[in-house]
């Protein structure tokens, strides 16, 4: 799970000064980004207008892609600091390797959760052979200052709790939804849930008014708080909600992302989340020297080199531009 942009723009995000304290309906459009050799993704966070939703700091949506005659996802070993990665699939499978020695194939509705802490490296690839279609989301969760130097760890949870209602099955990825809690480790109040809706479903999902929320449309036709949200786009909802109306015009899948607004300002560049440009520079140097991040064994290829840092200094911009 990587940001493979060869000219990533550093930005400062987080802080509560730009949190929308009331319900809103802000539609976020993606930008197209190349991921690895053959996968193109739609990047929703960070976005031109918004950088975070709770502790969720990075969201890519990809597929469904027909990779029957393609290599599929091929992301070489690369480093992370200061975050957790969440691998979430609707179709296909991804083989995860990391510098803690983890080797795990992740399949639809299974949680692959990697905590980078002070430093980890990993690769992701479509297995050989692999399923015809690949469809999923890649997400990062920012770690708060008191936990961002923890030891790196990988968790795999093949069975997750669900919440059901007429026409709705909600799989709890992280956090707690309507009394059902995910086994995944979290470090801030957060929610991530996969919502499968059948055609004609008209439901109201309970929410925490102190959380801010966003809904990522994965597939199908769905109206979120009466706003049509097309696959690959996200609706930011703000705070102050106790419930969320959802109506499915067809069978549909969406992801609910939310959490307590993240209080700290963060510097995010390439695959790092830190607190200063100096910290980012040190992490880049450590990766290029082959220290700190360990080694990924078994990937057929070399590690991903870090791009050059920009010459211009970072400018704090808060949670929104």
UniProtKB/TrEMBL annotation:
UniProt cross-references to InterPro entries, sorted A to Z: Pirin, Pirin_C_dom, Pirin_N_dom, RmlC-like_jellyroll, RmlC_Cupin_sf
Ranges of residues in domain Pirin C-terminal: 193-292
Domain Pirin N-terminal: start-end pairs: 41-141
Region: Disordered, residue numbers: 299-321
Swiss-Prot/TrEMBL cofactor(s): Fe cation
Cofactor note: Binds 1 Fe cation per subunit.
Pfam families, alphabetized: Pirin (PF02678), Pirin_C (PF05726)
Name of the protein this chain belongs to: Pirin
